[in-house]
Amino acid sequence: MTFRSALESLIESLDATVRIAWWDPASEPIPEPLRRSAGQLQERLGSANRLAAGKFVGAPAVVATSEAIREAVQQLDTAFVAYHKRADGGAAQRDEAAIELDAEVGRVKLDAPRWD
What we know:
The chain is built from five helices and no strands. It is an all-alpha fold. The longest helix is centred in the middle third of the chain and has 28 residues, at 60-87.
């Protein structure tokens, strides 16, 4: 449950990061809960990666679930690193990077049944 919660928190922060990347602060300010969630991204990514680095033993179903979550964390980590590298390259690159990050988060969410 702890590992799954870490993954879900990471996804929440990545979603917030993408939404902020597309936000037009001139039209309205970024809501504080969204800003707070995005601000926790590094911490949540670190926690999820530390959990993913562990060795999982136990019943085959538990190990399979843990491995599925580990794969999701690794995919999201890779996607965020790619996003971060491109996000500072101007508006067009930032938008493309946000689209790619959002797509990867969406793909990972599709695998949510594997986390149960």
